[in-house]
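Re: weekly structure request thread

Next one in the queue (313 aa):
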Amino acid sequence: MLRDPHDGVNYFKRFLRPHFIKGAQNVFFYRFMQFMKFNSGTMDPQKWMTRFQLTGNRLIESWIDLLPEALITSPEAILFVQRQRQEHEADQVERAQVVAATPGADPHVVIPWSDEMTLVSFRSFNENRRQAQRMAFPLGDNLLVLIFVSLAELTQDQRSTLTSIMTHRGRTLDQYHVQELRDLFLEMFCATKTAVDNPMMQPSGVALRRSFLVLDDGELEGTDGYWAEDDEDGAEGFLDALEDVFWVYDDADYTWYQGRFQGRQTRRGKGKGKRKGKGRGGRRFFRSRKGKGRGKGRRKGRSHMVSEEGYEE
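Done, posted below.
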């Protein structure tokens, strides 16, 4: 029944949801409080606007779920289906009369009312009820816009600029629209943060501080450093002793990937050994100062082995 394209979701809400999550009223109150407290804070404006819109859509969906489920045997549903059946039968009679008055026309085949048509009418009845419930949402479109502006936490200068631009466009407070304000926010307050517009910009992950577990001291292709394990994802690779670069060997592509960072914290110990095959194949190129695990040769230079994508941090 969950696979039914029409009643699968309703079946989940009627029979399964009470056994796994709270009722519809608790869900609505939770999402309502989440929506009213969802201010921008230090979040990027573009990301905040997208999440704000998604939070509002979830709130509206939870409001629609407050509508009691109608049964096909309810008086309102029976009356709606009867009206649909009467309109269908009247339409069939009218079509038959038109065909009879047309010389040489093929006789009209009367389509009788069926159980399938009853189900279609009942689904239309439920859809109309959901639309009416949506229109009864207590927060109107204009109030949602005002909440959007208030939760954006604009500075005094930004609010003055926004008011001036909307006044110049001939908009009053009751004429504010979410999409128009969203486009205006993108134009005014959102700075472009992509390498396409700013080629000198470095990825955001470069400034992150990294922690490593040092497994061995040695060298790789003439460069002193350590064979280390990344505490974040468990990847093993070569950590340069002087530069903040972490090299990981890809066994599938036979390529070294570099991950640059800023600031490190190292400690000695034994690796966890839980993730197999994550950059560990490159250790055969690593020369240990302890005389263990001598590398099988030395490669000159590593610049040609740097992938364009780089090591994902």
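The chain has eight helices and seven strands. The beta strands are 210-220, 223-230, 236-240, 245-250, 255-260, 264-268, 286-288.
Next request, please.
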